[in-house]
Design brief:
The structure is a single chain. The chain has one domain: TIM Barrel (Alpha-Beta Barrel), CATH 3.20.20.70. The chain is built from twelve helices and twelve strands. The chain has helices at 39-49, 82-94, 112-115, 141-161, 175-180, 195-212, 234-246, 274-278, 297-305, 316-320, 332-335, 342-347; strands spanning 9-10, 16-17, 21-23, 55-62, 98-104, 119-120, 137-138, 165-169, 217-223, 252-255, 288-290, 311-313. The strands form three sheets. It has an eight-stranded parallel β-barrel, surrounded by six helices. It has a two-stranded antiparallel ribbon with strand order 1-2. It has a two-stranded parallel ribbon with strand order 6-7. α8 links the parallel β10 and β11 (288-290). α1 (39-49) runs parallel beside α2, α2 packs across α4 (141-161) and α4 packs parallel to α6. The two termini are 33 Å apart. It binds flavin mononucleotide. The site of flavin mononucleotide has 21 residues, from β4 and α10.
Length: 349
């Protein structure tokens, strides 16, 4: 029987991923200071495309200068970004992969000197595992309209550049995660309060993109949960995932929430976040991507067979060795796993 990881997967819009391996979005810090693609960016993604992954996601790209979290972050915030993004998309297509651009606004998760205007839903400091952030200002109704416009305009640029998909970054404590989470959104208008209200901006952005760029597939990176007391729970996220599917997203990429993407202290082993995709996989009517410390083809096969995920994102292991997961490659992780057994690892909370 053929290996599960090499089986193609068709998305609802007819797009076919050649296999179940995904290169997740990973900031490369190779853009120039205006957020444009450089030769270094192209070379970096040429390397990642060698993975042969069915889907290669391009790193978080800011939709506005105020949404920038790091210097040299890639941008999709103005027309001058389109030529470079076009080169990048065609480079990846030439390598035979489906490709998506992740769109982000950092909201309150940056510093004033990088984004110039630190703002969030309620002016609440965003908790983070790895740093202490400054308090953002609370956003106005005009700011909400601006974010909506900026996300849609950036998606239209991704469409013009030839990307197959855009991914809205609603995880890791960045802007749209801040809107969804009760920890950072304590507004009393129609964008705050109930879970549905907190999801409103995300859902409106998806609707806006689908109208403005009907060819483009839309996917969302969401937290499986926030991982903080009083934050988004797995039940909340099951409800949100249902709304996202109704809104027409093609697949969901399940990661962590407020706090960041880094491994939480309490989680160990290969697949340390896969319990999150496992909680949703097979229940939504769209495929889900699972992620978190996946290092071996054996783990991937088990996770696919057990339906913990439909697609496996492998980040750092592919940065380290881009071709490690290609068909026919021998992997050290296949024969001598150094971490916990897959089933235990996925359950390690
Ligand atoms: C260098 C680096 C940059 C990252 N940048 C992003 C990013 O731009 N957007 C995002 O959603 N996650 C980002 N992440 C998180 C990864 O997508 C992934 O979820 C995480 O690395 C866990 O997967 P892994 O254990 O296979 O590396 C980044 C991770 C790394 C290591």
């Amino acid at each position: 029987m053929s290996k599960l990881r090499f089986r193609p997967l068709a998305l609802a819009n007819g797009l076919i991923l050649n296999n179940r391996l995904v290169v997740p979005p990973m900031a490369s810090q190779t853009a120039d200071s205006s957020g444009r693609v450089t030769e270094q960016t192209l070379a970096h993604y040429r390397q990642l495309a060698r993975s042969g992954a069915g889907l290669v996601m391009v790193e978080y790209s800011h939709v506005a200068l105020t949404g920038r979290s790091e210097p040299n972050q890639l941008g999709a915030h103005d027309e001058a970004c389109v030529p470079g993004l076009t080169l990048l998309a065609s480079e990846l297509h030439r390598a035979g992969v489906v490709t998506g651009l992740q769109l982000t606004h950092c909201g309150g998760k940056a510093s004033q000197d990088v984004c110039g205007d630190l703002m969030g839903p309620s002016g609440i400091t965003v908790p983070a595992y790895d740093r202490t952030l400054e308090a953002p200002r609370a956003m106005t109704s005009d700011d909400i309209r601006t974010w909506h416009r900026d996300f849609v305009a950036a998606a239209v640029r991704a469409d013009q550049a030839g990307f197959d998909l855009v991914e809205i970054h609603c995880a890791h404590g960045y802007g749209i995660n801040q809107w969804l989470s009760p920890l950072t959104n304590q507004r009393s208008d129609r964008y705050g309060g109930s879970l549905r209200n907190r999801a409103r901006l995300l859902l409106e952005i998806i609707e806006g993109i689908r109208v403005a760029a009907p060819r483009l597939g839309v996917i969302v990176r969401i937290p499986g949960q926030d991982g903080y007391p009083e934050g988004l729970s797995q039940d909340d996220m099951r409800t949100v995932a249902g709304w996202l599917v109704e809104a027409g997203v093609l697949l969901l990429d399940i990661s962590s929430g407020i706090g960041g993407w880094n491994r939480p202290k309490a989680r160990r082993g290969e697949g340390y976040l896969v319990a999150e995709s496992r909680a949703l996989c097979g229940q939504l009517g769209v495929p889900v991507i699972g992620v978190g410390g996946i290092e071996s083809a054996d783990y991937m096969e088990t996770a696919l067979a057990e339906r913990w995920l439909d697609l496996a994102a492998v980040g750092r292991a592919i940065l380290k060795d881009p071709v490690a997961f290609r068909e026919g490659q021998m992997q050290p992780g296949n024969t001598a796993p150094t971490t916990a057994a897959p089933a235990e690892a996925a359950l390690a909370l």
